[in-house]
Specification:
heterodimer, A: alpha+beta, OB fold (Dihydrolipoamide Acetyltransferase, E2P), 6-stranded mixed beta sheet, 9 helices, globular, B: mainly alpha, membrane (chain B), ABC transporter permease (chain B), MetI-like (chain B)
Chain lengths: 356, 288
């Protein structure tokens, strides 16, 4: 187990990056605490897999240093870094049995056979493949194959960290829950440092203590699930987290009031905004109340998704989503009000002012 | 799944059946026809039964040629399959090297058999050939026209030059289909170079290797053109393979009956051996 420091890491796949845009990974400077469970969340192509591969040593960063427990490992090979990594698609050794697959990483490191046997038997029970030890890995289902991949990651007790690269993509939904809670339990039990890449926000939020949101090659916010929900630092985090995402409405900010179209909204703080910045007001659909008082809206559609209803409406010529309780009523002349505490103000997409 | 019976479906297969009938079945049957009859010319045929088959199977000439064929195929497979794998493993996976290597590899395959034979026939000549002359200058006693060993070496080197590319290309196709994640996982699992080959690359190449093995076996077992051009079956009978013997018998001596019987036997041997190889290689696959 180790603390991992990333010092000013940048990476470009091309040979000679000229501008900032040539970097697949813009500057990342971050520290992963020993024993922490982190989720790297972001859309496809945002650089999260690149960052993961830099940590595991499959990619050498163009710039910057990586430290494990204070020791520089930037130029060490993957083997020497002692990292376990689970990939998106199950990687198994077809010709080996389930048992040999799990024993492979240990035998390669010349672990004594009695120890191998003990570890493998433990892991095989843990991943629920108890009766399958002697089976060839070839004929297994995708679920089982991915469990073996997971098992090969977990079998080494001395790893510095375990990295997961969207490991549950190919798994059936109900199985996902089972595996995710197993990983979580193992994390609690052994306390290894864990970095989990995903583009599924539910997965990230349920899994991790800290979620790292990446967008366009950079980290836009690191926070607990609650922080990401209530105080998104960047409008992208607002959109990306939550279902539906945050309403981001262009607004004029004047002192402690915001103006959207003809409507004026009072704020409980006074954002400081540089002149010329593009200003927006962000409010989550959960914090928009619909009723007889407030600002007029035109309802365009109501989606009933079971637990609650999602109301799509036009407000001041903008599209807005509102979450309404399952038994909530929409009056004949609907009006909406924003929960003042939940309003975030953005200047050029970054959050300004207010308490954190 | 419920299968619907559709009589009209036969019409779809008919063109292929007709084509195969004309290209394979009918010629084969005429050979069967010759093999059970005797003739003294004038298009008069007499029933001979299995006489020709007995003749062929009891002649030393047949068994000698068959032995030569088996040895030749065994040597060819033992050299070309491992060599093909090694070259494929060392080919570049991306960049400008890929098309360059692929074109270089494909070149020998594009040359017609008889031209390959002619190239090596000239190349190996002691008086004017680059190879033969160079070897003589170096003091190596090399003469494929007189020395049976030299004739064999020439034929084998020629076949390796001509056909290893096929094995390489097939293996390469198998190798590039392996996702990067396998190599990355192997690195993380601390696998050695040998383990990567043994547990990742070889299993993924298994299917194409089966095809390569069968193709190279059948082709080398049927070899005719190159030895005909280079050695003409000599010196003596040392490079007289079944195919060369067959042509001597059919066209040289005009013994249609024995030649036809030999053709059928030859055909059945290839069929049988290919079937055995295929079964052995695929059942070991299914057991795993």
């Amino acid at each position: 187990m180790a603390r991992i420091d990333l010092e000013h890491i940048r990476h470009a796949y091309g040979a000679k990056p000229k501008s900032e845009n040539d970097y697949a990974l813009k500057e990342v400077h971050h520290e992963w605490n020993d024993g922490g469970a982190y989720a790297l969340l972001g859309p496809s192509g945002c650089g999260k897999t690149t960052l993961l591969n830099i940590i595991s040593g499959l990619i050498n960063p163009s710039e910057g240093r990586i430290l494990f427990d204070g020791k520089d490992v930037t130029h060490l090979s993957t083997q020497d870094r002692n990292i376990a990594q689970v990939f998106q698609f199950p990687v198994i050794y077809d010709t080996m049995t389930v048992y040999d697959n799990l024993a492979f990483p240990l035998r390669n490191r010349h672990v004594p056979e009695t120890e191998v046997d003990r570890r493998v038997k433990e892991i095989i029970e843990m991943i629920g493949l108890g009766g399958w030890a002697g089976k060839k890995a070839q004929g297994l289902t995708a679920d089982q194959k991915q469990k073996i991949s997971l098992g090969r990651g977990l079998v080494r007790s001395d790893v510095s960290a375990i990295l997961f690269d969207e490991p549950l993509t190919v798994i059936d939904p109900e199985m996902k829950w089972v595996l995710r809670s197993q990983i979580k339990r193992l994390h609690k039990q052994f306390g290894f440092t864990m970095v989990y890449v995903t583009h599924d926000q539910t997965e990230a939020l349920t899994f991790a203590d800290k979620v790292v949101v990446m967008y366009d090659g950079q980290i836009v916010q690191i926070g607990t699930p609650a922080e990401l929900f209530e105080r998104p630092r960047h409008t992208f985090v607002g959109y990306f987290i939550g279902s539906p995402g945050m309403n981001v409405l262009p607004a004029k900010i004047d002192g402690s009031t915001a103006t959207i179209g003809d409507e004026t909204i009072a704020l409980n703080f006074r954002p400081e905004i540089k002149s010329g910045a593009k200003t927006e007001l962000g409010i989550r659909p959960e914090f928009v109340a619909i009723g007889r008082e407030g600002m007029p809206v035109a309802i365009s559609k109501v989606e009933d998704i079971g637990r609650h209803k999602i109301v799509r409406a036009r407000f001041a010529d903008q599209l807005i989503s509102i979450i309404l309780d399952e038994d909530g009523e929409i009056p004949a002349e609907p009006r909406i009000a924003f929960d003042q505490k939940a309003i975030n103000i953005y200047a050029d997409s970054w959050r300004v002012g207010g308490e954190a | 799944m419920e299968k619907t019976w559709n009589n009209k479906a036969w019409f779809m297969v008919l063109p292929v059946l007709v084509l195969v009938a004309f290209s394979a079945v009918i010629p084969l049957m005429t050979v069967v026809n010759y093999s059970v009859q005797d003739t003294f010319g004038n298009n008069e045929f007499f029933w001979a039964g299995t006489d020709w088959y007995v003749d062929v199977l009891t002649s030393d000439r047949f068994w000698d040629a068959l032995t030569r064929n088996l040895i030749f195929s065994a040597i060819i497979l033992a050299i070309e399959i491992p060599l093909g794998i090694i070259i494929a493993l060392n080919m570049p996976k991306k960049g400008l090297g890929v098309p360059v290597c692929l074109v270089l590899m494909a070149l020998p395959l594009l040359i017609p058999w008889n031209v390959v034979g002619t190239i090596w026939q000239v190349f190996g000549r002691v008086d004017i050939g680059l190879l033969g002359h160079t070897l003589e200058m170096l003091g190596v006693n090399y003469n494929y026209v007189q020395n049976p060993i030299d004739a064999w070496v020439t034929l084998i080197v020629m076949d390796v030059w001509h056909w290893t590319s096929l094995v390489v290309l097939l293996c390469y196709a198998g190798l590039v289909s392996i996702p990067d994640a396998y190599y990355q996982a192997a690195k993380i699992d601390g696998a050695s170079r040998w383990s990567v080959f043994r547990y990742i690359q070889l299993p993924k190449m298994k299917r194409v290797l089966l095809i390569a093995f069968l193709l190279r076996f059948m082709d080398s077992f049927m070899i005719y053109t190159e030895p005909f051009v280079v050695t003409g079956g000599g010196p003596g009978n040392s490079t007289t393979f079944l195919s060369i013997d067959l042509v001597k018998m059919a066209i040289g001596q005009f013994d249609l009956g024995p030649a036809a019987a030999l053709s059928i036997i030859y055909f059945l041997i290839i069929l049988l051996l290919s079937w055995i190889f295929y079964t052995v290689m695929t059942t070991s696959d299914a057991q795993s």
